[in-house]
């Protein structure tokens, strides 16, 4: 950005703006916008879908049919139910709250963690400590915005607390997870399973992920529906048009 002395606005095509130096922009009077809300439901949908697929072994079950194992070996190995189990949501913002609404339909016992209790989180337990949240959860959803303070917030202690029967679902940012600790736990069985839509250094992944059968891998496409991508593009355009027309920005960050 230092090479663009006439830069007036950075309009991010996405809700996360951790790749933008917001302090630099603020100091230079450069406006920053993003595209929240329009992608919230799709991201929540994928997070819950990944939980279902991983818990019931949907990907492996399809392969069981396709490779002839059903005919030659019989019934697919039993998996774990989703209904009535315990879910933890690390970060009950827009996306986290939509995840919670969906999980209620599965009769789940839902708790959440964050900077403070939320007035809209009726019927959900607030657990301030992420380790304690993981300890009381069968499924831990990570829906936090990425900041320096949240980097590797899901580290070895949280993963250990989630345990060999637990599942980690990340639909936020890769930096919120200590990937080295996650890989070690998945390989050793200290963590039961994971479902991930984001990775450090994506689209290149640590090759250790590719060798694991207890992790569901997705290509960072939680908002990847035709409807949402159109809405994101429209919101980005609306921010740019508003800026150059001297009007209030629809979704200003700075």
From TrEMBL:
Organism domain of life: Bacteria
GO molecular function: glyoxylate reductase (NADPH) activity; hydroxypyruvate reductase [NAD(P)H] activity; NAD binding
Top EC category: oxidoreductase
E.C. no: 1.1.1.79
Pfam families membership: 2-Hacid_dh, 2-Hacid_dh_C
Ranges in a coiled coil: none
Keyword set, alphabetical order: NAD, NADP, Oxidoreductase, Pyruvate
Residue ranges constituting the D-isomer specific 2-hydroxyacid dehydrogenase NAD-binding domain according to the UniProt record: 48-222
Residues of the D-isomer specific 2-hydroxyacid dehydrogenase catalytic domain: 1-253
GO cellular component, one term: cytosol
Family: Belongs to the D-isomer specific 2-hydroxyacid dehydrogenase family.
Protein's name in the database: Glyoxylate/hydroxypyruvate reductase B
Taxonomic source organism: Aminobacter aminovorans
Lineage of source species: Bacteria, Pseudomonadati, Pseudomonadota, Alphaproteobacteria, Hyphomicrobiales
Gene: tkrA
């Amino acid at each position: 950005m230092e090479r663009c002395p006439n830069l007036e606005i950075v309009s991010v095509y996405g809700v996360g703006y951790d790749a933008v130096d917001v302090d630099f922009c603020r100091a230079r009077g450069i406006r920053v916008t993003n595209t929240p809300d329009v992608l919230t439901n799709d991201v929540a949908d994928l997070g819950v879908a990944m939980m279902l697929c991983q818990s019931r072994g949907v990907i492996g079950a399809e392969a069981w049919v396709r490779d002839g194992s059903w005919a030659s070996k019989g019934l697919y190995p039993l998996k774990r139910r989703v209904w009535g189990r315990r879910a933890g949501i690390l970060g009950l913002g827009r996306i986290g709250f939509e995840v919670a609404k969906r999980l209620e339909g599965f009769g789940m016992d839902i708790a959440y963690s964050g900077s403070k209790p939320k007035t809209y989180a009726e019927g959900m337990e607030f657990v301030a400590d992420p380790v304690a949240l993981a300890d009381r959860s069968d499924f831990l959803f990570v829906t936090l915005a990425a900041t320096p303070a949240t980097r590797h917030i899901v580290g070895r202690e949280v993963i250990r607390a989630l345990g060999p029967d637990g599942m980690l679902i990340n639909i936020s940012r890769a930096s919120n997870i200590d990937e080295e600790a996650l890989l070690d736990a998945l390989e050793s069985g200290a963590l039961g399973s994971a479902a991930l839509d984001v990775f450090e250094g994506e689209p290149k992944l640590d090759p250790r992920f590719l060798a694991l059968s207890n992790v569901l891998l997705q290509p960072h496409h939680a908002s990847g529906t035709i409807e949402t991508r159109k809405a994101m593009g429209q919101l980005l355009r609306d921010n740019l048009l508003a800026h150059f027309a001297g009007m209030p920005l629809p979704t200003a960050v700075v």
